[in-house]
Specification:
The protein is of the alpha/beta class. It has one domain (18-353): 3-Layer(aba) Sandwich (Rossmann fold), CATH 3.40.50. The protein has helices spanning 28-38, 73-80, 99-118, 159-177, 199-205, 224-237, 253-260, 272-281, 289-297, 304-308, 317-334, 345-353; strands at residues 18-23, 43-50, 61-65, 84-87, 126-132, 182-188, 190-192, 208-212, 218-219, 221-223, 241-245, 251-252, 263-267. A 7-stranded parallel sheet has the order 3-2-1-4-5-6-11, sandwiched between helices. A two-stranded parallel sheet has the order 7-10. It has a two-stranded parallel ribbon with strand order 8-13. The longest helix is centred in the first third of the chain and has 20 residues, at 99-118. It is globular.
């Protein structure tokens, strides 16, 4: 384990602001959540765990290297006295993730996290978990809109769905055993945005969107900024419960391709993954198992619970697709994209602590 700065506790608990631990600081969502919390004046300390160094610029977030199962988490919680854990490190995309690693990250990692949060004398008072609407599956018998308490209507068909359902079962048991804690689970729909890469955005950027012949399902999306805003809102307001998170409305799969400027790639209804395998192996498209059901039957989730709690979306489902398309068209026209920032510990320590740096100058 390495740590880029001290995370020691100072002062009494009554004098502290909020002390937040984020899992997966080296991932897209962990980094974005840390950036968002850094601007919150009531957050005194932010600590992120990750297997690798962060990939985004961070001003006051501490980083501790950890394995992906978070076996060190109990010691970290005791040492830092964090009161809030935001669990962003759940795999919701099974592309290139071996089954064993998927289980270790999602199930074992969450199990260790909950054990640390619920241990005797733990300082933790709030746990926020970033989950996915994949827990509902996609089937012909599905309702038009899944509410948070609606049971899925089909058997579990993919290892990703199985792991997420197991995670939520662990969280549900933890919530019942720890009624004094604020526990929130956010189930996000398919994400699109200017920076995040998902199977849908990967395919749209290559102008080739697989579809199942004879099917044009209705789907939902949530824009990447609304993902971070929802996590930040529930964390800051300390709102317990399970919440669906998706932009308003649904749109046909064919319209997603049209707005995104992509061609539809029809796949046979029988064994479509076998048919698309050569393109997938060549890196031309992404087609994880959980995508097949979605492209047949779609999925819709009711988001009135989170809206009723005061959260306001900036994007509808169609708006998320349109925003992505505008950014993607700009990339195509300029032939360039946003440069990727790579966290370098020595450089960051220089900017944070060196007397040679003139404070108050933006750089």
């Amino acid at each position: 384990m390495t740590c880029c700065a001290s995370a020691a506790v100072s002062g009494s608990a009554d004098q502290m602001g909020r002390r937040v631990l984020i899992t997966g600081l080296d991932t897209f969502w962990g980094g974005r959540m840390a950036q968002a919390l850094e601007s919150e004046p009531d957050v005194e300390m932010i600590l992120g765990l990750g297997a690798n160094e962060p990939r985004v610029p961070l001003e006051r977030t501490e980083f501790v290297r950890s394995d992906q199962k978070y076996s060190i988490l109990s010691r970290i919680v005791r040492a830092t006295q964090v009161d809030t854990i935001v669990h962003t490190f759940l795999e919701t995309n099974s592309v290139n993730i071996p089954s064993r690693l998927l289980h270790e990250i999602n199930v074992i990692g969450t199990l260790n996290l909950l054990a640390a949060a619920g241990s005797a004398g733990s300082s933790v008072r709030q746990v926020v978990v970033k989950s996915s609407t994949h827990v509902y599956g996609s089937a012909e018998t599905d309702p038009a809109w899944f509410r948070e308490d609606t049971q899925r209507t089909s058997p579990v068909r993919t290892r990703l769905e199985r792991s997420l359902i197991e995670v939520e079962s662990l969280v549900r048991d933890f919530t019942e055993d720890n009624p004094h804690l604020v526990v929130s689970v956010l189930r996000f729909a398919n994400v699109l945005g200017t920076d995040i890469i998902t199977p849908v955005s990967f395919n749209l950027r290559r102008r080739l969107l697989p579809c199942i012949a004879g099917f044009d399902p209705l789907v939902q999306f949530v824009e990447e900024d609304d993902v971070v805003r929802a996590l930040e809102y529930v964390t800051g307001q300390q709102i317990p419960g399970v919440f669906n998170v998706a932009g308003a409305g649904k749109l046909p799969w064919s319209e997603v391709a049209s707005i995104g400027g992509a061609f539809l790639l029809p796949l046979p209804p029988f064994r479509p993954r076998a048919f698309v395998a050569p393109l997938r192996q060549a890196g031309a498209v992404q087609f994880p198992p959980e995508m097949e059901g979605l492209m047949r039957y779609g999925r819709g989730v009711d988001t009135s619970r989170l809206v009723g709690a005061g959260f306001q979306y900036r994007y509808t489902s169609a708006g998320a697709v349109e925003s992505f398309a505008r950014a993607n068209n700009l990339r195509r026209s300029t032939g360039s994209g946003e440069p990727e920032y790579r966290y370098e510990q020595d450089v960051e320590q220089f900017f944070r602590h060196s007397p040679a740096v003139v404070r108050g100058i933006d750089g």
